[in-house]
Design a protein that fits this description.
This protein is mainly α and 359 residues long. The chain has one domain: Orthogonal Bundle (ABC transporter involved in vitamin B12 uptake, BtuC). The strands form two sheets. It has a two-stranded antiparallel sheet with strand order 1-2. Strands 3-4 form a two-stranded antiparallel sheet. Helix 4 packs parallel to helix 9 and helix 5 crosses helix 12. This is Ferric enterobactin transport system permease protein FepG. InterPro entries: ABC_BtuC-like, ABC_transptr_permease_BtuC. Its main location: membrane.
Length: 359
């Protein structure tokens, strides 16, 4: 009886907020969900699948969609196309999708924690910290892919810990203080990254400089698997903790009255978000603005006050895969790194977003 009453109250509040809500019941259990949120998620997932299928046909070597289906069906006379598909294109596509998902979900968490649309990991310095860890491995130790990914994750976590401790005051983290501290730490780390490029020999410096521009070129399964596993493991945990984080957004005092351990929830969610951002950075290099734009675009489509963890992740995958396709289909054989492409488009979006906020 108490469960039904709670659901009825939630449903009534949703109607008052103008949201289309429905209730799924199974015995004594009930779940309130939004039809629009499910529809948006389904559309983004379908779009991601269609783009992924199309991406298998894009490249210098011709592979048609019919041949892709034949290869998946076990056709024995397409050995060259099979190698191109499974060793070149599929790792690139999987890296793009899951790195985008990681950045989108990470951006949603940081924007919720900081209560600011500018609170994405690339703006508040965490991506710079991940890049510093990766550059140390590339420039000083000439390390491989796995070592670079682990170093990126370590650098991101250490940077997040420094920013969190510097922002912690009077028992809690100040939201504007978190953003400003992150920007300052990120500026220092960007300068350090420049010094690392000067420190290394010419070959390692060129490799590091190419990596800093963000790229999905020559990706293999050692790039794709870490970020894919990270997304599949951490995304459900982040969704599970999304409701307490939303309650914290209503105010620390109210959240305390509801029995939520504010700093623990905030710290755990930040840790998950940093790990995802660092894994994405280790797989594709520093990719700008996906973490900033994906949560905002997902929230505009959903028209809901809920934290868009899954929707932001799917939107991030769509944006990064679309940017990668754009870099491959651009005429005149121009080669533009994926990080530069997202930086150009994201910079325009940021100017528009700031102008909208000002109005």
């Amino acid at each position: 009886m108490e469960t039904v009453t709670t659901v009825t109250q939630a449903e009534s509040a949703a109607r008052q907020a103008g949201l289309s809500r429905a209730v799924w019941r199974y015995g004594p259990y009930s779940i309130v969900y939004s039809r629009r949120e499910l529809l948006v998620g389904a559309l983004l997932f379908g779009l991601l699948c269609l783009m992924g299928m199309y991406a298998t046909t894009v490249g210098k070597f011709p592979v048609s969609l019919t041949q892709v289906f034949d290869i998946l069906g076990g056709a024995p006379d397409l050995r060259i196309q099979e190698r191109v598909l499974f060793h070149i294109r599929m790792p690139r596509i999987v890296t793009a999708i899951f790195a985008g998902c990681a950045l989108g979900a990470s951006g949603a968490i940081f924007q919720s924690v900081s209560r600011n649309v500018l609170g994405s990991p690339d703006i508040i310095g965490f991506t710079s910290g991940a890049a510093t860890g990766a550059l140390i491995q590339i420039v000083l130790f000439s390390a491989g892919t796995i070592a670079v990914a682990l170093a990126a994750m370590t650098g991101g976590i250490v940077t997040a810990a420094v920013v969190y401790l510097l922002s912690f005051k009077s028992g809690s983290v100040g939201y504007y203080r978190l953003i400003l501290t992150g920007i300052g730490v990120g500026a220092v780390l960007t300068a350090l990254n420049g010094l690392l490029l000067v420190k290394g020999n010419i070959d390692d410096a060129l490799t590091a400089n190419l990596w800093l521009s963000g790229s999905l070129h020559a990706r293999n399964w050692t790039h794709a698997l870490p970020v894919m596993i990270g997304v599949l493991v951490l995304l459900p945990l982040m969704k599970w903790l999304a409701r307490p984080l939303m309650m914290i957004g209503m105010g620390d005092e109210m959240a305390k009255q509801l029995g939520i351990r504010i700093e623990r929830v905030r710290l755990v969610m930040m840790l998950f978000a940093v790990i995802l951002a660092a894994l994405a950075t280790g797989a594709a290099g520093p990719v700008a603005f996906i973490a900033l734009a994906a949560p905002q675009l997902a929230a505009r489509l959903r028209r809901s006050g809920n934290l868009p963890v899954f929707s932001a992740a799917l939107m991030g995958g769509v944006l990064l895969l679309a940017a990668d396709l754009l870099t491959q289909l651009i005429p005149l054989d121009l080669t533009i790194p994926i990080g530069r492409m997202t930086g150009i488009v994201g910079g325009i979006y940021l100017l528009w977003l700031l102008n909208q906020k000002h109005k």
